[in-house]
Design a protein that fits this description.
37% of the residues lie in helices and 16% in strands.
Amino acid sequence: MTPLVYISRNYKFSTNAASKPKTDCESILNSIGFKNLGFKQTQYKSSALGAIISFLGISKGLFILPYKSTICIQYPLSKFYKLITKIAVLKKCTIILIVHDVKSLMGKNKHIAQEMKKFSCANTIIIHNHSMAQWFINHGSKANLIPLYMFDYLSNNNDAPELGNKAQKIYDIVFAGGLGYEKSAFLYKLDEIKNSHYKLKLYGNGFNKDVVNKTNSILEYQGRFSPEEVSKHIKGSFGLVWNGNAIEECAGNFGNYLLYNNPHKTSLYLLCGLPIIIWEKAAIASFIKKEGLGICISSLAELNFLLQNLNTEEYQLMLNNVTQVRKKIMSGGFLKDAVKRALEKTT
């Protein structure tokens, strides 16, 4: 049997969820028979110490990497990606690439051809969804492309979320993530529109309380928590997936990225038992609509009317559907399915 392997490294600890998808992926890979060839996964805060540990662990893993094995690599991996892929190719390994972010799509890299060249070593690429797959095809990818559909979100919180069971007069809408102007400027415009049927509960870094009307704003800052703890604190009726600087649409680089990516916060909301409110043009919106997991909207300006007219049966159906998908997210089911399909493609 072909050895199934990956190489762990240090993931710098932080209160945001930047490393959470990658550490979860390693745990899921381990659970389905992949062996870590490097050092045990660590999360040291020190960048220097983390880089040394990562280099030594990756060097060890590459040295003992079996010839013609199947190796799963996560992208991006800026410091060590070229080294790992080069050795894997030299040892004639089958490479399965799990893509977390594409810098060209995020507006961080204008040299698309250079980034696509980094993907060319992979036999199979696990991408977010069909929209991202089409982008890869349009830019010359010849690899097998496997949609993930949804990121998993492993949690040590086994308590069932406190779910509502009826439509409400005023909904608590949760927004988690970066709260600064660069990524979430739209938040600070919401008080300008009619919003008598909802309030926003904010979780994360960068909240600018100085520009918020302190007496009658719908924005209620709840604090910031580690990705392992935040699910214990989130309480609400819906989770909002929206980025950019506009209310009418998801605009700017962060907003446009929703046309291609699966935001990790979507999985967090579902883990917490919350139906989703999402921009209708977002790539993941089709999955939300198909599975009955929430509401797709064209503009935040229409949200008040939609919530005002949401009935008990509609809301309860969303909650029931969320409960079913939540089980799969908690158990790593989406990545397990994607890796299984990837292995079938490579045999």
